[in-house]
Design brief:
The protein is α+β, with helices and mostly antiparallel strands. The protein has a six-stranded antiparallel β-sheet with strand order 2-3-1-9-8-10, covered by helices on one side. Strands 4-5-6-7-11-12 form a six-stranded antiparallel β-sheet, with helices on one face. A five-stranded parallel β-sheet has the order 15-14-13-16-17, sandwiched between helices. Strand 11 and strand 12 form a beta hairpin. It is globular and about 60 Å long.
Length: about 500
């Protein structure tokens, strides 16, 4: 994990180093840079594996790579890289050799989370981002220079208005422009023979589906336990984080280790109580922190800056993420989390409004495709601000393909069928019944942060101020609370075009 900066065109190393210094939290263990032809590449690294320094150079190919992220199937892809000697143990080096042998379309073979730039002595240049947008990447263009950065905060003030999200699943070259190399949700089903649909509401889920769900998640969790840095897991006590903790704890036990788990909340918060139950059941080394309303409000400006967003729902849930990441970073360098389960298996409350299989499937696809500037952005920013790497087993490529091959009819929630019924049934016996049947709560809700943040921030802005200032962005600001967050954002990201760098949920 790391922070990357790249400039294509007019080379200004001082500008690159200045931007790189603003990403020290993403890579506190060192930095490196290189001039390659008409390009400047800069990197800050977080030491998860030995020999992870970048830029990574292939003298044989005349190529240099900088990348943020992990390629979880790197070992499987080595044969496709040809007869080359790998210079590091960093999994992202796979991308360098794949590009050298097969071109940028080969990035579609990589299962992981990544944002990368490769430049060649012969003028070749490519930037790419994983299909889900799990790793951040921005770009800005002016005159003959194109600037890439892991975070909006890296840009100088005069470049801030030009910055935009780099689209997930795309690569860019000066010759071809933007080209899509992969979609978040594959068109082809995960199995040659489709899974059967329920004949009636309440039908038992076929064991074939449940076995496949368990198998894919087990493999994803095991694959993401890679590296020689200490690994833990966020544990809110909800279904998603508890399933991931159970998988990770089993892997640790087989290796003669004990998993470390982390939970935060107000005193008496339901998340804390539920997390203790799960931690006791799994036998983890459990760490928890209680915080007060004043402490939540105190870190709020830092959360907005780290998040680079002002959407109320995202900010509220990010406060708890920020505090639990700060706790975890004192003990480990890597955490697993349950992000992605709601988008795959249909966990959000509003999805109960959908009674059509086709409509629900389309909405779940939309959720996965939009996660790069929503929930996935929250996970990345609130962990990396504390130099902590987060991994998301639910978002493994094969698990996504499987999840969307399961007919959406099995995911329709009702009074008879709870949300994420497939996931609950797949892990019967792995967790206490009360945890498997626990209803969905947003992270900030279960930890106790939502009400106090909403109330205090709403009180800080008058209705007259909202009416006067609501049109400073498009679409307009919706609530007094959102305006309060926007003011913090605008002060620290002057001139940033919100519609190009901020994702916002439908409801505030």
């Amino acid at each position: 994990m790391s922070g990357i900066i790249a400039s294509r065109g007019r080379i200004d190393p001082e500008q690159g180093e200045r931007m790189l210094d603003r990403l020290v939290h993403r890579g506190p263990d060192g930095s490196g840079s290189a001039v390659v032809g008409e390009s400047w590449l800069g990197h800050r690294w977080l030491a998860i594996v030995e020999d992870s320094q970048q830029p990574i150079r292939s003298e044989a190919a005349g190529l240099t790579l900088i990348a943020d992220g992990e390629v979880y199937n790197a070992a499987e892809l080595r044969d496709a890289c040809g007869d080359v000697a790998f210079a590091t143990r960093d999994t992202v080096e796979t991308a360098l050799h794949l590009y050298a042998t097969s071109g940028p379309e080969a990035f579609a073979e990589m299962d992981g989370q990544f944002a990368l730039v490769t430049a060649g002595d012969d003028g070749r240049f490519v930037a790419a981002r994983d299909p889900f947008g799990l790793k951040p990447l921005f770009w800005a263009r002016r005159d003959r220079q194109t600037l890439f950065a892991s975070e909006l905060s890296a840009y100088d003030e005069d470049w801030m208005p030009l910055a935009e999200f780099f689209p997930p699943g795309h690569y860019w070259t000066p010759q071809e422009g933007l080209v899509r190399f992969a979609y978040a949700v594959p068109d082809a089903p995960a199995m040659a023979t489709p899974f059967e649909r329920p004949e009636e509401e309440g039908d038992p889920i076929p064991e074939e589906i449940l076995e496949r769900v368990r198998k894919e998640l087990e493999e994803a969790a095991e694959q993401q336990m890679m590296g020689n840095a200490p690994i833990g897991a966020f544990l809110s006590g909800g279904l998603d984080s508890s399933v991931i903790a159970a998988l990770a704890a089993r892997w640790c036990e087989q290796c003669g280790q004990r998993l470390k788990t982390f939970a935060v909340g107000f005193e008496g918060a339901p998340d804390l109580a539920a997390a203790r139950v799960v931690a006791s059941h799994l036998g983890t080394d459990h760490y928890e922190k209680t915080y007060t309303a004043d402490e939540a409000l105190e870190v709020l400006p830092e959360v907005v800056l780290a998040l680079e967003n002002f959407d109320p729902s995202l900010v509220r849930s990010s406060v708890s993420n920020y505090i639990v990441a700060e706790l975890a970073a004192q003990h480990v360098k890597v955490v697993l989390c349950g992000e992605g389960a709601d988008e795959i298996f249909g966990g959000y409350h509003y999805l109960k409004e959908f009674d059509s299989e086709e409509a629900l499937h389309a909405e779940l696809v939309r959720g996965i495709e939009g996660g790069h500037n929503g929930g996935f952005q929250r996970v990345d920013r609130t962990t990396m601000i504390h130099s902590l790497q987060a991994r998301m087993p639910f978002m493994a490529r094969d698990n996504i393909a499987l999840g969307f091959a399961i007919p959406a009819a099995w995911k329709l929630a009702s009074d008879v069928m709870p949300e994420k019924h497939v996931l609950r049934e797949a892990f019967q016996g792995w967790l206490p019944h009360d945890i498997l049947s626990r209803k969905k709560a947003q992270f900030g809700e279960g930890s106790g942060a939502v009400d106090v943040l909403q109330e205090r921030m709403t009180e800080s802005v008058t209705e007259e101020e909202l009416q006067r200032e609501r049109d400073v962005v498009a679409p307009p600001l919706r609530t007094r609370e959102e305006l309060a967050y926007y003011r913090i954002f605008a002060e620290h990201f002057p001139g940033a075009q919100a519609e190009k760098v901020v994702g916002r949920f439908v409801t505030a």
